[in-house]
């Protein structure tokens, strides 16, 4: 038989690291069949004069085992996740799913695209980083032409002729260079101008420009197309007016106003009490531009227009600060849920 000392050493050296070894510890030292229990059974066989002392030693041994067990158990329980699995309450109302909304600029962009696609224009896209030819030179901006100042340009330092496009007319050039008339395209995209940021202007904004080139395209065709667009966008009661303007790439050129959709033409802050608000620039494509792009200007004519999406969005949703479209404040954006398709 093992001595009491040996069992004591076994208790002290026993490694309890997890629930299994804890259970083994219990079986070995604290169960009914343990050696310590059988020592209790032997007390009666011990000589009378030693019995008390022997009994005391066995008691101490059992206490040592029990105390060690309690200590190990507490440590293991505190480090093991013993939480009972929560049974879900199936009567609880479901968590609300918040559905996102489209950005108002995307909503407007898609709306403009759709109106023009329905009347036969197809959308073309292209690079934000452009070269001088596609943004200026091909569009009849002569070198040193003061009109280049109309659009303060961000240049990219790699080469003096690399820049961020200031309008998506660059895509009209790319289209004319790569296909012959009839051409009917719209060019949606982001554009960049080195302008101070205010409630009315931003250094990034979005445009949809359009181009129609075929035989015998007239100024009247342009006017009718733009009236159709304005009425689809702002309602049938909307009127348009054309004011003479200047762009290097169109001749004649015009700016198009719509009757103010806030006051209905009576005069308010948005229209500066004129009853009209400007929505786009347009004109008949200058023959020089057609020739620059390899199109016979004796045979073909066409019109072009360009509109600012932020401006259209401000008019349609009656907001008065362009910066709202770039700050991504959720309190603003979530108001466009209903318009998200
Ligand atoms: N490209 C011009 C701009 O960004 C808009 C425009 C396009 C004007 C086509 C006339 C014709 O200001």
Structural overview:
This protein has 341 residues and is an alpha+beta fold. It is 38% helix and 19% strand. Helix 1 runs parallel beside helix 4 and helix 3 runs antiparallel to helix 4. It is rod-shaped and about 135 Å long. The chain binds phenylalanine (PHE). Phenylalanine binds next to strand 7, strand 8 and strand 9.
Highlighted features:
19% strand, BirA Bifunctional Protein, domain 2, 2 domains, 341 residues, seven-stranded mixed sheet, binds phenylalanine, alpha+beta, 9 strands, two-stranded antiparallel sheet, 12 helices
SSE blueprint and pairings:
Elements lengths: L3 H10 L5 H11 L5 H8 L5 H32 L24 H15 L3 E2 L5 E3 H4 L26 E3 L4 H10 L4 E10 L11 E11 L4 H16 L5 E8 L2 E10 L16 E10 L1 H6 L8 E8 H9 L6 H4 L2 H4 L8
Parallel strand pairs: 1-4
Antiparallel strand pairs: 2-3, 4-5, 5-9, 6-7, 7-8, 8-9
Helix pairs in contact: 1-4, 2-4, 3-4, 5-10
The chain binds phenylalanine.
Phenylalanine binds next to β7, β8 and β9.
Entry summary:
It contains twelve helices and nine strands. By secondary structure, it is α+β, with helices and mostly antiparallel strands.
């Amino acid at each position: 038989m093992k001595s009491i000392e040996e069992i004591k050493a076994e208790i002290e050296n026993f490694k309890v690291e997890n629930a299994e070894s804890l259970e083994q510890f219990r079986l070995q030292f604290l169960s009914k069949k343990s050696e310590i229990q059988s020592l209790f059974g032997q007390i009666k066989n011990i000589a009378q004069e030693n019995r008390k002392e022997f009994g005391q030693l066995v008691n101490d041994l059992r206490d040592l085992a029990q105390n060690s067990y309690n200590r190990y158990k507490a440590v293991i329980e505190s480090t093991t996740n013993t939480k009972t699995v929560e049974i879900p309450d199936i009567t609880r109302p479901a968590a609300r799913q918040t559905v996102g909304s489209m950005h108002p600029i995307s909503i407007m962009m898609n709306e403009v695209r759709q109106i023009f696609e329905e009347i036969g224009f197809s959308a073309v896209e292209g690079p934000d980083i452009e070269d001088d030819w596609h943004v200026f030179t091909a569009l009849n901006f002569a070198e040193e032409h003061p009109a280049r100042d109309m659009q303060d340009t961000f240049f990219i330092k790699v080469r003096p002729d690399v820049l961020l496009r200031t309008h998506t007319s660059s895509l009209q050039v790319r289209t004319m260079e790569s296909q012959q008339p009839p051409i009917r395209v719209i060019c949606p995209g982001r554009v960049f101008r080195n302008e101070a940021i205010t409630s009315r202007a931003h250094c990034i904004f979005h445009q949809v420009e359009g181009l129609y080139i075929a035989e015998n395209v007239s100024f009247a065709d342009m006017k009718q197309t733009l009236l159709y667009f304005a009425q689809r966008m702002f309602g049938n009661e909307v009127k348009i007016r054309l004011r003479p303007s200047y762009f290097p790439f169109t001749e004649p050129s015009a700016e198009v106003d719509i009757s103010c959709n806030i006051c209905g033409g009576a005069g308010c802050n948005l229209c500066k009490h004129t009853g009209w608000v400007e929505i786009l620039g347009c004109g008949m494509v200058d023959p020089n531009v057609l020739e620059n792009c390899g199109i016979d200007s004796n045979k073909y004519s066409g019109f072009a227009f360009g509109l600012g999406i932020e401006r259209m969005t401000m008019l349609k949703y009656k907001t008065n600060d362009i910066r709202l479209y770039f700050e991504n404040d959720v309190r603003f954006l979530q108001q466009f849920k209903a318009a998200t398709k």
